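Q: what sequence does this backbone want?
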């Protein structure tokens, strides 16, 4: 397989020199754990104290990792990336909300992005988080098999109704819908609900996509069982396959509560699990569709190789590669330049409300040291190339 991800001219073709310098500065900051910790504390304090820092946040970290504050705000970024063949997934990234008004707001935002997606080829998917539509504790209680009281049953009925409304809209508008995965101790209830939506709306093809976090050692078995069910009942499986985003929290909880951690024993085991899942799905691609959400170059090459070995066109509609906006442009833009389907997750929302998402991004990048140093090396190489030219 030809190595395409080192081409920095393609990777950063949309970035001005100023934007490239800002990216270099940001990743230099993120590379330092103490700086991330201090920056996070200072930012949280400034926002809680209502200090006028939103402009500064917007001009630095927000604009690098987010598309804008509203859907409309994102459109210039969407259109610009699409000139290079890179699509967008508009992701309303307001987290940690716990009331019905916010859940209904998230539903309306998701319905609106489905309409956007129907009207724009540059937006092939809509997306939401299960806890965007209902309380975490409710999913957790259901997943543990506990009885809901009368008020909770009514509350869960509203969660199901939100799922139903958004999945029906996705089906009626022929827009694929990605449903994110979250912590393992709430995921069982979300999985059951997403499966119900697949049974109903994936009769002709994959419209509703669940998410598999492959740092969990049980997810491949889960997929195989779901596949058996899908064969018997006649529905397609759509899966976003990722490594995962809650590792430290998962391990800490398992240790505190004295159960076996759901996380693979090593980074290598996670990588092998991820690649095995992708290989299984390619083997059964006639009844499945893959959104490979990965910043891992080796896994991307492996999927490209599997497609080639199975005589699949680069632009086969059942296979999408995905990365987060502001990261791994060397993967996204080089894949697109070679005719593969690629989409960037493009977070949006009010600056203040998106800060938990941005802090998580910074912390994840700090903990995955190889990712940050790779970003810095690529940015440095491109700055050097431009100076020589």
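A:
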């Amino acid at each position: 397989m030809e190595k395409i991800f080192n081409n920095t001219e393609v990777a950063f073709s949309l970035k001005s020199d100023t934007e490239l310098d800002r990216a270099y500065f940001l990743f230099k900051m993120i590379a330092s754990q103490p700086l991330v910790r201090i920056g996070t504390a200072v930012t949280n304090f400034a926002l809680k104290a209502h200090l006028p820092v939103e402009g500064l946040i917007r001009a630095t970290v927000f604009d690098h990792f987010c598309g804008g504050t509203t859907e409309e705000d994102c459109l210039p970024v969407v259109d610009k990336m699409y000139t290079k063949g890179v699509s967008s997934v508009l992701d309303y990234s307001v987290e940690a909300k716990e009331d019905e008004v916010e859940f209904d707001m998230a539903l309306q935002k998701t319905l609106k992005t489905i309409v956007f997606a129907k009207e724009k080829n540059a937006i092939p998917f809509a997306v939401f988080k299960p806890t965007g539509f209902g309380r975490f504790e409710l999913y957790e209680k259901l997943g543990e098999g506990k009885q809901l009281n009368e008020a909770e049953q009514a509350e869960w009925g509203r969660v199901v109704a939100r799922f139903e409304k958004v999945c029906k809209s996705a089906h009626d508008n022929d827009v694929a819908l990605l449903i994110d995965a979250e912590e393992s101790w709430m995921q069982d209830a979300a999985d059951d609900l997403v499966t119900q939506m697949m049974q109903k709306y994936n009769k002709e093809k994959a419209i509703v996509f669940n998410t598999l976090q492959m740092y969990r050692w049980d997810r491949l078995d889960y997929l195989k069982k779901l596949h058996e069910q899908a064969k018997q009942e006649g529905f397609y499986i759509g899966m976003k396959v990722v490594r995962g985003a809650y590792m430290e929290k998962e391990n800490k909880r398992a240790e505190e509560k004295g159960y076996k951690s759901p996380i693979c024993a090593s980074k290598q085991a996670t990588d092998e699990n991820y690649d095995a899942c992708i290989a299984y799905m390619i083997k059964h691609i006639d009844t499945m569709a893959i959104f490979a959400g990965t910043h891992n170059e080796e896994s991307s090459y492996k999927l490209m190789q599997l497609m080639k070995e199975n005589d699949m066109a680069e632009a086969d509609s059942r296979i999408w590669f995905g990365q987060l906006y502001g990261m791994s442009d060397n993967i996204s833009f080089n894949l697109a330049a070679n005719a593969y389907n690629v989409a960037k997750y493009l977070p949006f929302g009010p600056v203040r409300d998106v800060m938990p998402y941005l802090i998580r991004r910074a912390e994840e990048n700090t903990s995955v040291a190889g990712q940050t140093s790779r970003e810095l090396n690529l940015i440095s190489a491109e700055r050097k190339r431009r100076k020589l030219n």
